[in-house]
Each structure stands twice: as structure tokens, then as C-alpha cells.
Specification:
It holds the Pfam family Amidohydro_3. One of its GO terms (molecular function) is hydrolase activity, acting on carbon-nitrogen (but not peptide) bonds, in linear amides. This protein is globular. It has 550 residues and is of the alpha/beta class. It contains 19 helices and 22 strands. A 7-stranded mixed β-sheet has the order 3-2-7-19-20-21-22, with no helix packed on it. A 5-stranded parallel β-sheet has the order 8-9-10-11-12, with helices on both faces.
């Protein structure tokens, strides 16, 4: 069935094109025709769904360059969080750790345990028929997504932490030349199976143990052998020495020629207040020297990760089982306490943890579920305990599977970075559990409603480009996606510019946004008149041998 939008205001994704009113005909998953209002003719026998859209904005579907939907695309196929806010394309495999590639079930178990705070740890028995966790390679994983059909389009980054785990194991040690060669071979294999680039999580084990030169070897593979691919690092610190950490990543781009995409490019903690202009000048300097640099951010102040990520890296060496073993030893606990609370450690971005800023997120263990949504300091006070005692209790009882929110952002930095000409959208949304971050449901409406309409930080036309054409260009799918033009994929969002608004809050993070009426993915209606219908029109986007992503 074809779909005809009558007289919407088209915001095409190209900010050089002013919004205009037109009719737009969708057929066979593509934008077939764009014409003056009421000028598209069809026979009465034609099966055409007509949508009266005057006064509404029709834009390309929004693109999430930093998604953690790796499992939710399979276990929660309607994908309410993303579809309800107009997201039609996602990039997973983020932060240097995900579920492929792996060689052994032991490796997969360690990864599942390590990032259970991000994605949960669903049992295949509870989701029969999906083939959940039956993969090993990136190709296997992408095939699993394709077989099950996804609500959004999805692309995959090779997690550098996985590469290091396969070659070096989970230990804090210098990679040998042979181990680096093995990582390069694993990267080539994953890229040839359809990945679009590589991610790192340089505050997460085991990827954080990699040296700059080790990362450089992998970036050279991308630059020399896979044109159009990119490196998306979660770098070594967003707190103490954050500027130096950004400089290391930009230096990799200069050294190797690899495109660098600075993911969730924040400058958090008090000591980085007002430093956004310095970071942006560094990016502009690198770009002037020929480095391809882009970045993404989410439109909120707090961050979100696993509670175990606050541990020093030495305490996490060897994987989750070794971490839990260390947490049973009183002397080791005291050593951890000093690193976390007094000196600051790499897990806490080099800054002593302030428990007033750490909010416990989703938990799996029933006995501590009532801690969810509360600050660690508040829980400690209510129990007449020290905050570090609550920290250890939660880690052990929940077996490291707890998420947390870190209330550490700087609004002036968020706004300044958002306005930069390299800026793209990335939610960094953890979807698992009740106590998640509101960005899971509110990222794209917040960009458009709060920052564009209400604060007038950018025009609506410009802000839409940040969510559509810019990330599409980074991903290598533009102009087939991220742009409204004849022949492009019909990934579309119909929204009311006067009322679009994020409704999710830190107390109620799973509230759907207002003001979005229709969402189409490859021409299939996924949300109609604000109601999700369960249609899964997404495609798995693979990098082909010729460098195209489709």
C-alpha cells in the first residue's frame, strides 16, 4: 500500500533548504514523488493511505549514533523507547564491549555479566526461537537481527574491548606484537562481515588496557583498508585530564588518517566547567589539518553507566568473577575505598566519587530493588551505613549488574558543544530496567522541543539536520537516508513543532514523548496517530566490499 502525506511542512534534513509545504508519496519503501500541495493524482482503485498533515512537520527519521539496543532489538521487538521518539536508525556495538565477536561461551558469559547493567542478562530460554546468544561472529549477530526483523535500521561497530579479550584475555598487560596482529585480523574479519567501524570503551575493562600505539594499529587497519569506516572512542576520562584524553583521540586521527567520531562528547565534573571552547578549538584545529572529526552528544546533564564502572581498573582485571572475588576481601575493599573516595581512580574518571551525585539505577536482586532511583548517600543515611558500604553491598548482591546515573554535567558545555558544526545526535540510552535515564525515551524530542523551540539555541531546520543528515553522512548512508528527496528511503517522522516535548523524567524515565504522530521505517508505519503497531520495517545496514553502507 502506498502512503500519501497531504501538505506537511517538509524539513528535508539539508539545512540549506528552507522548510516548504508539499505532498509526498511513499511507495515500495521509498519516497516516490514530492509535488506541490494537492498535485499528486492517483486512481480510485489504487490502494493509497492518505494522511492529512497540514501544519505538521515531516522530517527524515532520527538517527542515533550511540545506541545500546544490542539485545533489546531482539527481546523487545516493538522497541517502544526508540520508535515512539522518532528514531529510525541506530548504531550498536558501542563503548568497546558487546556480544560479538567471541570465540568461547566463557568469553560470552563474562561479557554478559559485565554489561548486564546496560542491557540486562536475558535467558535464551525466556526468548525461544530468537537464536539469542547462538552467534559468535559479527556476521552471525547481524544475521540473527536480520532473521528476527528489527523495528529500526541498525548498524554495528566492532567493539575494541572484544578484540583485546580474544587476543590478550581479560588482564591488564601490554599486548605483544603477535597479540596486536591477532586483533588486527579479528577486526578485518568483523569489518568484512558488515561492521561500519570500531568503538572503544577506555574506562571499561579490558579495552582500557590498550596503549595508544595499540589503538593506532587498529585505526590504521580501518583507514588503510576500509574507506568510509570510522573509530568511535569512549576515551580515557571525561573528568580529570578530560582535555588530554580528547587530545589522545584526535592524535590518533592525525597519526593514522582514521576518521574519529567522539562519542557522547561531554565535559563533565566541576573542573571542566567552561572548557567546551577549548575542546572545540582542538577539534577545529584537527579538522584544519585534514583529520575527519565528528562528535555526538545527548541533551541531558547526567551520565549513565554501570555502578561497577566506578571501580579502579585493577579491581576489574580478569573479568566479573575475579572482581567479585576481590570484593569479598576486606583489605582489598579498603584499597578500593581509598581509590574511589580519596585519590580518585580511572573508573571514576580520576576524580574522587561524590556519593551525592551517584544515583542507583536498575537492579536485578529483589532485596535491593528499593534502592533503585535513590542516591547512594541517601540510601546510606537511611540505613545508618557509610556510602562505600552501600556501594559494596549493591555490587556484590547484584553481581555487578546494577546501572547508575551520575549527576555531573555542565549545562554551558552541553549547549556549546551542541551548536558545533560537527555535532550529531546520540542517545547513549540504556533501555534495561525501571531506573533508567530519561534519554532512553526523550533524547530526540528534547533536542527539538527544549533546545530548539524553547531555548532557541538552533533553528528547527538546523537542529533537524543534527539528528538526520549529519549522522547519516558519518555513517555513510546519506543521501539514501537522512534526507527527504525522491528515491530516498522512507524513514520519516511526522511531528507537531509547537508541542513536541520529552516527558521522561529521572523519577519516571519511561514516559513517552508528546507531539509525534507518525513514524515510518522503510515505508512501513511503525507508529500511527501516536500508537505503536508492532510493525518491524528496519534493515540491517552492512558495510559492503565497495565501501557502501546499505
Amino acid at each position: 500500500m502506498s502512503i500519501l502525506f497531504i501538505s506537511p511542512t517538509i524539513i528535508s534534513g539539508d539545512p540549506s533548504i528552507e522548510p516548504y509545504e508539499a505532498d509526498i508519496l511513499i511507495s515500495n519503501g521509498l519516497i516516490k514523488q514530492i509535488s506541490k500541495p494537492t498535485s499528486i493524482l492517483f486512481n480510485e482503485t489504487d490502494k493509497v493511505k492518505i494522511i492529512q498533515a497540514k501544519g505538521w512537520v515531516l522530517s527524515p527519521g532520527f538517527i542515533d549514533l550511540h545506541a545500546h539496543s544490542d539485545l533489546y532489538l531482539l527481546t523487545n521487538p516493538e522497541h517502544e523507547a526508540k520508535i515512539s521518539q522518532g528514531c529510525t536508525t541506530e548504531v550498536v556495538g558501542q563503548d568497546g564491549i558487546s556480544y560479538s565477536p567471541i570465540h568461547t561461551q566463557q568469553q560470552l558469559k563474562a561479557i554478559r555479566d559485565q554489561i548486564a547493567g546496560w542491557n540486562g542478562n536475558p535467558s535464551p530460554e525466556d526468548h525461544p526461537g530468537l537464536g539469542l546468544f547462538e552467534w559468535k561472529t559479527v556476521g552471525d549477530y547481524l544475521n540473527c537481527l536480520e532473521r528476527n526483523k528489527t523495528a529500526t535500521n541498525v548498524a554495528y561497530l566492532v567493539p575494541q574491548g572484544n578484540l583485546r579479550l580474544l587476543a590478550c584475555g581479560p588482564w591488564d598487560q601490554v599486548a605483544t606484537p603477535d597479540e596486536i596482529v591477532r586483533q588486527e585480523a579479528e577486526l578485518r574479519k568483523a569489518m568484512n562481515e558488515g561492521a561500519v567501524g570500531m568503538s572503544s570503551g577506555l574506562t571499561y575493562t579490558p579495552g582500557m588496557y590498550a596503549s595508544t600505539s595499540e589503538l593506532g594499529s587498529l585505526c590504521r587497519v580501518l583507514a588503510d583498508e576500509f574507506p568510509g569506516s570510522y573509530y568511535a572512542p569512549h576515551h580515557r576520562s571525561y573528568g580529570f585530564k578530560a582535555i588530554e584524553s580528547y587530545a589522545e583521540m584526535l592524535g590518533l586521527g592525525r597519526m593514522t588518517g582514521c576518521p574519529i567520531h567522539l562519542t557522547h562528547a561531554t565535559l563533565n565534573f566541576t573542573e571542566n566547567k567552561g572548557k567546551a571552547p577549548l575542546l572545540l578549538s582542538m577539534i577545529d584545529s584537527a579538522r584544519a589539518a585534514g583529520v575527519d572529526v565528528t562528535l555526538d552528544t545527548y541533551p541531558y546533564l547526567p551520565g549513565c553507566t554501570t555502578l561497577a564502572a566506578l571501580l579502579p581498573s585493577w579491581a576489574s582485571a580478569g573479568g566479573p568473577s575475579e572482581t567479585l572475588r576481590r570484593l569479598e576481601d576486606e583489605m582489598t575493599r579498603e584499597k578500593i575505598r581509598r581509590a574511589v573516595e580519596e585519590t580518585g581512580c580511572d573508573g571514576g574518571h580520576g576524580i574522587p566519587t561524590n556519593w551525592d551525585e551517584i544515583q542507583i539505577g536498575s537492579t536485578n536482586e529483589p532485596s535491593i530493588r528499593h534502592y533503585s532511583g535513590r542516591r547512594v548517600s541517601e540510601v546510606a543515611k537511611s540505613l545508618n551505613l557509610l556510602p562505600i558500604q552501600v556501594f559494596f553491598e549493591v555490587l556484590v548482591k547484584d553481581r555487578l549488574a546494577t546501572s547508575c546515573l551520575m549527576h555531573i554535567g555542565n549545562e554551558e558545555n552541553v549547549r556549546e558543544i551542541m551548536c558545533h558544526h560537527t555535532h550529531c545526535s546520540g542517545s547513549d540510552a540504556i533501555l534495561h530496567g525501571k531506573g533508567t535515564h530519561p534519554r532512553a525515551y526523550g533524547t530526540f524530542p528534547r533536542f527539538l522541543g527544549h533546545y530548539s523551540r524553547d531555548l532557541k539555541l538552533l533553528s528547527l531546520n538546523e537542529m533537524v539536520s543534527h539528528l538526520t543528515s549529519r549522522p547519516a553522512k558519518r555513517l555513510g548512508i546519506y543521501p539514501h537516508r537522512g534526507l527527504i528527496q525522491e528515491g530516498s528511503a522512507a524513514d520519516l517522522v511526522l511531528f507537531d513543532p509547537k508541542t513536541i516535548k520529552d516527558k521522561a523524567t529521572f523519577d519516571e524515565p519511561k514516559q513517552r514523548a508528546e507531539g509525534i504522530r507518525y513514524v515510518l521505517v522503510n515505508g512501513k508505519i511503525a507508529m500511527e496517530e501516536g500508537v505503536l503497531n508492532g510493525n518491524r520495517g528496519g534493515s540491517v545496514l552492512r558495510r559492503r566490499q565497495d565501501g557502501k553502507v546499505c
